[in-house]
Amino acid sequence: MVWISRFRLRLAARHLRRGGLVAYPTEAVYGLGCAPLNGTAVNRLMELKKRPPTKGLILIAAEFGQIEKFLDLSAAGIREKLMATWPGPITWIVPARPWVPHWLRGVQGTIAVRVTSHEPAAALCRAFGGPIVSTSANPSGAAPARTRLKVRQYFRAAELAFLPGTTGGLQRPTSIYDARSGARLR
């Protein structure tokens, strides 16, 4: 198990609660995160990455209960598909509840979610008290950052908090599946 300083976790969580952006290690690459219901923070994140807001975003959580309220689980079998792969490096596209903000859904009526088993990312979600936005730490179109140094090179002028740690060793970003059809999307 990876040891993470409680002090560093508290600082990162406080930064998230205040609308800040945090860079942190995930299963394969460094991620950029923010509070999912803070539209201003999400907008800053999208501008930083030069990413169109129509794409939607991924939410990661430490446990299913942190993301359940965002999901419409009324279709048969969806909950079972999710629970069979979590915690772990599988992201699912799931129908979103009607109240979920457009900046999380993009133009779809769905939301991408993952219950991570990577301890630094999970610890950040626990310290924050809920799910966080998780997108790769890179400008749109560039290779995702795998180190803190590469994140700094990409975003020199950005005000980012950093959660120390190493990535989980996956060679590729997490797989993404559609929860309704089961089709692999990435």
Q: In angstroms, what is the radius of gyration?
A: 15 Å
At the third CATH level, what is the topology name?
DHBP synthase
**How many helices does DSSP assign?**
6
Strand content: 15-25%
Largest sheet, in brief, is: 8 strands, mixed
Q: Could you estimate the helical fraction of the residues in percent?
A: 25-40%
Q: Which of globular, elongated, flat, extended, rod-shaped describes the shape?
A: globular
* N-end to C-end Cα span: 28 Å
Please mark out the parts with pLDDT under 50 across 5 or more consecutive residues, or reply none: none
Annotation, overall tally of beta strands: 8
Strand order of the largest sheet: 7-1-2-6-3-5-4-8
Could you describe the 3D structure shown?
The chain is an alpha/beta fold. It has one domain: DHBP synthase (Alpha-Beta Complex). It is built from six helices and eight strands; from the N terminus they run H-E-E-H-E-H-E-H-E-H-E-H-E-E. The protein has helices at 6-17, 39-49, 78-85, 102-105, 119-128, 148-154, and strands spanning 21-25, 30-33, 58-61, 90-95, 110-115, 132-136, 160-162, 175-178. It has an eight-stranded mixed beta sheet with strand order 7-1-2-6-3-5-4-8, sandwiched between helices. A hairpin with a 4-residue loop joins strand 1 (21-25) and strand 2 (30-33). Helix 1 (6-17) packs across helix 5. The model has no long low-confidence stretch (mean pLDDT 94).
